[in-house]
Design goal:
The chain is built from 16 helices and 16 strands. The protein is α/β, with parallel strands linked by helices. α5 crosses α6 and α7 runs parallel beside α8. The radius of gyration is 21 Å and the shape is globular. The relative contact order is 0.16. Bound molecules: 3-[(4S)-2,5-dioxoimidazolidin-4-yl]propanoic acid and fe (iii) ion (FE). Fe (iii) ion binds next to loops. The site of 3-[(4S)-2,5-dioxoimidazolidin-4-yl]propanoic acid has 14 residues, from α4.
Length: about 400
């Protein structure tokens, strides 16, 4: 051994999500990292020496569970204000679509975001990011989409980047200018789509603020041709795409994002068999969002059996947003995926680690394997299924992002 490792965990149950065992589980395992990368992951008996000689810091976990740091691959966590009033309206019988068509929904959050300074947006969004971090998240995707004009979209994406800098969590940004039609363009859809595709996206991409591009392909959102417009521009800019697809109806959006080799299709309650096949052929990940299903009291389940049959990777995310999913725990989203969607705990946990990494196009994380980023979560439980089983509660013991202590 030339260089000592930074940290070595011993007597751990390692849920690696690599290999053929359920959860990729290694009993009596050891995990070490150096320089931000995993240097050893395997049985304690395979260590090349005595722990104290191998690492600067050694921690005996006494059988505690270790997983890859959790990855929340679909959030709208940067926003101002809240929409608890709409929660109340929906409980009194109003539908999400009816509220949106009456001028509520996304555009009501747009008003709050446009009025907020960057500092105020950061101050209101940071507690939400901290909540996800406290529950094991080490990578989080954050979308724009509540500005719907250049300055406010820029502010949102800058705040998303700053959350990563100040809180230490890894942030991936997604531009979703086609999230809703802003009121000033209510009679000029083509003009707004032009502004998104020809002005906002190129400028914000040139400023390094955009890692991927998304759209809301839905009756109350944008149609296939409008979505195709922004996908064409993203493709020309070399940016990957993903799509809010088949949430409230079948717009065949999944086939469209698959046509562009998209990273993911998200929501998918109304996904058809042909859409599943298109995703399978393209390698597009299915991102299921049980928080929105739960909050909207949806009844139509995503086609889990078809997704399994065609071996489409399934990720789970919070969809943290003020309207359809004010959900501040990725672990709870995984539990909902089991209870509401009948996924197994192993499927759900793969959905917030290895498959979530793939939904963001990130191959350097999501499993515990030598060479991967040292994004690590250490838990005060023994059985991986407990992470889906316990509803809420502080189960995280500590987390590290690229080998640096995060929580
Ligand atoms: N679908 C959703 O569930 C969120 N965005 C979208 O396209 C809802 C966002 C909101 O209601 O604020
Ligand atoms: Fe969403």
């Amino acid at each position: 051994m030339t260089q000592r490792w930074d940290t070595l965990l011993v007597n751990a149950r390692l849920a690696t999500f690599a290999g053929s065992e359920p959860y990729g589980l290694i009993e009596h395992g050891a995990l070490a990292w150096a320089g931000g990368r995993i240097a050893f992951c395997g049985p304690v008996g395979d260590l090349p020496g005595r722990p104290m000689e191998l690492a600067e810091h050694v921690l005996d976990l006494d059988g505690g569970l270790v997983t890859p740091g959790l990855i929340d691959c679909h959030t709208h966590l940067v926003f101002a204000g809240n929409r608890a009033n709409e929660f109340d309206m929906r409980l009194k019988g109003a539908s999400y679509e009816a509220i949106a068509r009456a001028g509520g929904g996304i555009v009501s959050t747009v008003r709050a975001v446009r009025e907020a300074t960057e500092a105020r947006l950061f101050a209101q969004s940071a507690p939400r990011a901290r909540a996800l971090i406290a529950d094991g998240v080490t990578t989080v995707e954050i979308k724009s989409g509540y500005g719907l004009e250049l300055q406010a979209e820029r502010r949102m994406l800058r705040v998303a980047r700053e959350l990563g800098v100040q809180l230490g969590v890894c942030v991936r940004t997604t531009f979703i200018g086609l999230h809703a039609l802003p009121t000033e363009h209510k009679d000029d859809r083509p003009g707004y789509v032009d502004k998104v595709c020809d002005e906002m996206l190129p400028l914000l991409a040139a400023e390094g603020l955009v890692d991927a591009v998304d759209a809301f392909c839905e009756g109350i959102g944008f149609d296939r041709e409008e979505t195709r417009r922004v996908f064409e521009r993203a493709h020309a800019l070399g940016l990957p795409v993903k799509l809010h697809a088949e949430q409230l109806s079948d717009m065949d959006g999944a086939a469209l994002v698959a046509e562009y080799g998209g990273l993911s299709a998200d929501h998918l309650e109304h996904l058809s068999e042909s859409g599943v096949r298109a995703m399978a052929e393209a390698g597009t990940v299915a991102v299921l969002l049980p928080g929105a299903f739960y909050a909207l009291r949806e009844t139509k389940l995503p086609p889990l059996d078809a997704l399994r049959e065609h071996r489409v990777p399934i990720a789970i995310a919070t969809d943290l947003n003020p309207g359809t999913s004010p959900l501040l725990s990725l672990r709870m989203a995984a539990g909902m995926a089991c209870t509401l969607f009948r996924m197994t705990p192993e499927e759900a946990l793969a959905g917030i680690t290895v498959h979530a990494a793939r939904a963001l196009g990130l191959s350097d994380r999501g499993t515990l394997e030598p060479g991967k980023r040292a994004d690590i979560a250490v838990w005060n439980v023994q059985d991986p299924a407990e992470l889906c089983y316990w509803i809420g509660g502080p189960l995280l013991r500590q987390s590290h992002v690229a080998g640096r202590r995060l929580a």
